[in-house]
Write a structure and sequence with these properties.
Bound molecules: magnesium ion, zinc ion
Largest sheet: 7 strands, parallel
Order of helices and strands: HEHEHEHEEHHEHEH
Helix content: 25-40%
Shape: globular
Strand order of the largest sheet: 3-2-4-1-5-6-7
Number of domains: 1
Structural class: alpha/beta
Strand content: 15-25%
Radius of gyration: 18 Å
Oligomer: single chain
Number of strands: 7
Distance between the termini: 50 Å
CATH topology: Rossmann fold
CATH superfamily: P-loop containing nucleotide triphosphate hydrolases
Length: about 220
Amino acid sequence: MKVLRSKGPEIFDIELEKDLLAKNRSLARENRKKLDSLKILAIDIMGSIGSGKTSLIKAILKELVMGKKVAVIAGDLTTTIDAERIEVEGARVIQVNTGKECHLDANVIHQAVDKMKLDGVKVLFIENVGNLICPGEFPLGAHKRLVVVSVTEGPYTIVKHPYIFREADVIVLNKIDLAKAMKIDLSQLKKDAQKVNPKVPFIKTNALRGVGISEVIHALGLRP
Ligand code: MG
Ligand code: ZN
């Protein structure tokens, strides 16, 4: 798109957005300081609706067996389905309904962390709203950011969303048991991921069956 020499509203819009993102980043830094002072490792889980974010968190909790030493902030537009699914694994869960907001931001996490009982908590998972676009632009102050993509999303998810995959510290390819039925070439998806983010661990999982979960735990630095 060609931007004309106008000094009108277009430029003002760009400044506004910059300001918003800068404010978010500064709040994210505050969140990080607070989490560090509480000695809590926070992990932002991002991915599309249905990619398996909740299932991945459940599978990790099952394997870690840390009970109430783990807390989860479940972000969702309107429902409490994910929070209820996670709660049965024994973690502390707080549900954050964002209404029409399609991502979590640092301010929401700031408030949630303030409200949560975090005594004894060592690890905090933050399940972001299901979306592969804006969550990448809104760091929350988490120590690690994980993006989960499932083979059922088709062959082009990674190449079409380079920004969020570039932000990731860990990339998880989920539902690998369905690759054949979906005619998905797993090695091609790995190549796509390594093209946008060469050094990041790329882990294949079947979260419902616990396949690949110990590698995810290791990549996140969760094993003591
Ligand atoms: Mg979910
Ligand atoms: Zn959004």
